[in-house]
Target: Dickkopf N-terminal cysteine-rich domain-containing protein
Amino acid sequence: MLFIKLKRIINNFSIIINMAGEIKFLSKLMILILFWNASADENTMMNCTAYTCKQKGQSFTSGTCVYYNSKAITPTYYVKPCSSSKEYCPIAVEANTSCTKIPDTPIEITGLYPGEKCTKDTECRTPSIESGKTGCVDNICTGQGETEGCESNPDCKPGLYCLSGTCQKQIAIGSYGCENDFQCANGAGCNITNEVEKNKCVAYRSIAAHQPVGECAADGTNALCASKYCQVTGQYQPTEGEYQNTYACLATVISNSYLPMKCSYDVDCRSVSDDFFTDGQVFGTCVCGHNKDAQSYCTLFPGDPIAEVAFGYFQKWLNGTDINYCNTEHRFNSYCMSNWWSKKNYEKYMFAAVFADSYPVVVDEDDCVAEVYDSVLYELSKELDSSAMNYVLLAPVLVLVMN
Model:
């Protein structure tokens, strides 16, 4: 039941465009941010709203698709999907909403990067430099070639980055001299050190547990770590300057309890501790779900089986050749991915990725709620054939059984 309902949550954070002219615009990101009500700090207790279907005998004003009852002991959204395929249910915060006609106005496509598919010149991004190459050539947005002038990375064709005013070849995996990820080949990031000449392009998620990594973000992550997470291991003092931290990658970061993990505070969401570090535990986020009990659940950690399945698909993109058709700054852009990756791989990846990202929101979610709050996702889930759907849904179970 849980997995059947989770399939509604596929692509909240993307735009899926069919170049034949159809565009499916997913405008749910801000809605999810508003409705997740993630706690601001670890000491703030969750105060969630309930979501459920219109009740038997409950009367709705004609056309109403969401009725918000603020006077109930637990404020509740009652949901009834629109019956017409020509209407949708707009989402509002703490308010009633009515079925609204889907606008006929086509959405204009603009700002596409070099390497992305197009149908006319106006869809492509305007270059930063005067007289820079632009336009739709053979149905692909063009850009500046190697050694040609640029002001920023998006001016350059795929395989290139902008350095000192000219487009240059991206630095290969295993080579040195990078200053940021965009200078490295699309499947790699820059392992930053205190000396640029020692900075090395390293494949994403390839540095093993407890191995050194150049830096660690404020949220304790580094995309080069196999686990995605890192921790301080000590300090050193350069020849000149103040003491600086040294870092290493954590072992696999996985929830310390069975899924789904109920929570009231962020501190309830903990990973299994990595004893290699003084403080080797990672904290997740407690998120309000779209369920009738107003229950909040913990976000997944990268090592949790469902999240691992999602990353498995993403790794196919990272390690494949199709990623090289995208501009360096759009290496993870969903539109460019959909252009060059096979339809089957793209849909399975997006399904698995947002399945994992939205996990705490959709646990115990009623179908009617999923259809209204994730209507585009509901349609996209239908596009996956049954064998692909079953694999994505059952893979986490297989991982647990095999381990």
About this structure: The two ends are 23 Å apart (CA to CA).
